[in-house]
């Protein structure tokens, strides 16, 4: 979602999908019923464009935080960025092309909810899916500026937060104002796997090897509309 203020279905293989627990797979629409009790990671952003780095951290989040699924929340725009993103339909199509996984759902729900900031989106999602257990996912670069997000303290008091850090972002992330204020809520080491089961406030910081690619680089190379 663009932090939503701040950060800022593919058709799944039927052989894989058929082996999944019931509920739904990534090409089905989530409902209050089929999300009951599900541990769902939310990865928000403009995805302008989506790339293999997004795919990598999504797969890591599923594993490291014991999530049942991850939703990519493709944001209409980012209030902290002056430049507007590429058209939504183009970004959604790209996201579905690069992220093909039966436990990942690509969503433009933020546009339909008409929410602008992450805190607003979380309020709406929790009302729409009251029995789901959401975990907010972000990079360490977002954690460094998290205290600038609108109602950031409400976010961390509402849902657990999983931070995935690239090697060069580890120090900035751990010394971020929000990290210092909520240092006692940090799940360390192997406890990180319990994040999606925890009650807020709770957050975990995990280091993951990252692919050396970014949306900014893709636009600069001319591989994506700018």
TrEMBL record:
| Top-level EC class | transferase
The entry lists its GO molecular-function terms as:
ATP binding; nicotinate-nucleotide adenylyltransferase activity
Q: Which domain of life is it from?
A: Bacteria
GO BP annotation list: NAD+ biosynthetic process
* Entries under InterPro entries matching the protein: Cyt_trans-like, NadD/NMNAT, Rossmann-like_a/b/a_fold
Give the enzyme's EC designation: 2.7.7.18
Cytidyltransferase-like domain boundaries: 42-221
Pathway of action: Cofactor biosynthesis; NAD(+) biosynthesis; deamido-NAD(+) from nicotinate D-ribonucleotide: step 1/1
Q: Which UniProt keywords apply?
A: ATP-binding, NAD, Nucleotide-binding, Nucleotidyltransferase, Pyridine nucleotide biosynthesis, Transferase
Record field: catalytic activity: nicotinate beta-D-ribonucleotide + ATP + H(+) = deamido-NAD(+) + diphosphate
Q: Which SUPFAM superfamilies match?
A: Nucleotidylyl transferase
Q: What does this protein do?
A: Catalyzes the reversible adenylation of nicotinate mononucleotide (NaMN) to nicotinic acid adenine dinucleotide (NaAD).
- State the HAMAP family in the record: NaMN_adenylyltr
Q: Entry's NCBIfam families?
A: cyt_tran_rel (TIGR00125), nicotinate (nicotinamide) nucleotide adenylyltransferase (TIGR00482), PRK00071.2-2 (NF000843)
Q: Which family does the UniProt entry place this protein in?
A: Belongs to the NadD family.
Q: What is this protein called?
A: Probable nicotinate-nucleotide adenylyltransferase
Organism, by scientific name, is Planktotalea frisia
Q: What does the record give as the organism's lineage?
A: Bacteria, Pseudomonadati, Pseudomonadota, Alphaproteobacteria, Rhodobacterales
């Amino acid at each position: 979602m663009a932090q939503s203020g701040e950060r800022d279905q593919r058709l799944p293989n039927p052989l894989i999908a058929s082996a999944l627990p019931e509920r739904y797979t990534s090409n089905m629409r989530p409902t209050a019923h089929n999300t009951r009790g599900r541990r769902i990671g939310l990865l928000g952003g403009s995805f302008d464009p989506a790339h293999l780095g997004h795919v990598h951290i999504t797969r890591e989040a599923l594993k490291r935080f014991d999530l049942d699924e991850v939703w990519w929340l493709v944001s209409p725009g980012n209030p902290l960025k002056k430049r507007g993103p590429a058209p939504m339909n183009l970004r959604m199509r790209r996201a579905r092309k690069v992220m093909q996984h039966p436990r990942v759902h690509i969503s433009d729900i933020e546009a339909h909810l008409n929410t602008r900031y992450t805190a607003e989106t979380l309020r709406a999602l929790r009302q729409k899916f009251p029995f789901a257990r959401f975990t907010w996912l972000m990079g360490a670069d977002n954690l460094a500026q998290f205290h600038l997000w609108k109602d950031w303290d409400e976010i961390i008091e509402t849902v657990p937060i999983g931070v995935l850090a690239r090697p060069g972002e580890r120090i900035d992330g751990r010394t971020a104002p929000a990290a210092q204020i909520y240092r006692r809520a940090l799940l360390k080491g192997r406890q990180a796997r319990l994040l999606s089961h925890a009650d807020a406030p709770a957050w975990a910081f995990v280091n993951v090897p990252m692919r050396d690619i970014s949306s900014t680089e893709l636009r600069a190379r001319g591989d994506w509309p700018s």
